[in-house]
Design brief:
Layout (H helix, E strand, L loop, with lengths): L2 H12 L12 H4 L14 E3 L6 E3 L21 E2 L9 H17 L3 E6 L6 H21 L4 E8 L10 H7 L1 E5 L1
Parallel strand pairs: 4-5
Antiparallel strand pairs: 1-2, 3-6, 4-6
Length: 177
């Protein structure tokens, strides 16, 4: 699918939002499509577990534009499929943004890998480490060094619900300065 065509619906949905996966309802996402499950949402979005609206798992797509001023940027989380440490196409797209952001800020980044609460805790720590290492490898290949990599497993969930969409929000690598 054409990159631009994938972003058009997301741009319409996200105008004026940043990091909506941590959001409070804003004017932009108040009109987002209602949902009960992730399957109710379009590609690249998830059903927020408490707001019950389809929101992008990533920040405003305008951040991807080469002309976007990155002097005050914040790295985006990277999300993963169930039981996988493979980077998704959306994940790689946002890692490209993260590379530009990190280079523009001139700071080292810390990676924290997470998993959902499915599976044994030991396995989840191992999986979250693989996710963090996949992100680290991508950053390394693009000239960005990392200060620290940590595998957190099920710790610090975005949401503590037990539905599939709750679990999806927790399968992530957080990047922070």
């Amino acid at each position: 699918m054409n990159f631009t065509l994938r972003l058009v619906p997301a741009i319409a949905l996200l105008l004026g939002t940043v990091n909506c996966h941590n959001s409070v309802k804003t004017a932009a996402n108040a009109n987002a499509p209602k949902c009960n499950m992730d399957v109710d949402c379009m590609t690249g979005t998830l059903c927020h577990p408490t707001q019950k609206v389809c929101l992008s798992t990533y920040p405003d797509p305008r951040l991807l534009e080469a002309s976007y001023d990155l002097k005050n940027c914040t790295p985006s989380n990277v999300y993963f499929a169930f039981d996988s440490a493979d980077l998704t196409p959306d994940g790689k797209m946002w890692l490209d943004y993260n590379v530009r952001c990190i280079k523009a800020r001139g700071k080292q980044v810390v990676l924290d890998g997470y998993s959902d609460a499915k599976g044994e805790p030991g396995y989840n720590v191992e999986l979250s480490n693989k996710r963090a290492m996949a992100v680290k490898q991508y950053l390394d290949q693009n000239g960005v060094s990392t200060a620290q990599v940590a595998a957190k497993g099920e710790q610090n969930p975005v949401t503590t619900g037990t539905t599939e969409q709750d679990y999806a929000w927790n399968r992530r690598v957080e990047l922070r300065f």
